[in-house]
Amino acid sequence: MKKLLNLLLSLTLVLTLAGCGQEQTATYVMDIEQDGMHMVDTMVYKAAGDIVYQMDETVTIDLSGMDEATREVVVATYDEMYGAMGTDIPEGVVFEYSYANNIYTVVCNMNLKEADLQELSERGYLVLTGENGETVQAISFKQTCEYCESAGYVLQEQ
Fold first, then answer.
1. pTM, rounded to two decimals
2. Nearest partner of 92 among 108, 76, 71, judged by Cα
């Protein structure tokens, strides 16, 4: 009887701890149209419990509403900006950008299990704000979702 009780208690503990690390996914989208440019920014966050372990962002910018001269300037500016970021990619990050058929696409995937959060912050891939100047060790799913909503992103699925 004592062994059965210990087994049941152990099983309860395992199930309780498993619930704490529940997988969560949230997709946020921001859709902006301005000055002949239509941008859709899609952010997908994956977490175990409250800890984000994967961040994927895809930005598509439709430049077809711009005249050709303006479009060329915008593409050259984006190429220069993203080209500078893409020359030395940190570990755990996949970064790609392309332009075709008047659509500029930027994709950034961050595996936060492999990446160094401080390096990502220092290099401009992430904005990290810890409480009282503390070093951030992990990214909170809840706080990230709250930030996205306050910044104007709309939750698509969770």
1. 0.79
2. 108
Q: Is the pLDDT of residue 149 over 60?
A: yes
Amino acid at 56: D
Going from N- to C-terminal start, the domains of the chain cover: 21-157
Which two tokens mark 42? 């899609």
Which of 85-89, 113-117, 127-131 has the highest average model confidence (pLDDT)? 113-117
Burial class (CB in 10 A: 0-12, 13-18, 19+), 79: middle
The CA–CA distances, whole Å, from 140 to 5, 39, 87 equal 36, 27, 29
CATH fold label, 21-157? YehR-like fold (3.30.1830)
What's the pLDDT score for residue 18? Answer: 42
Q: Which amino acid does the sequence have at 138?
A: A
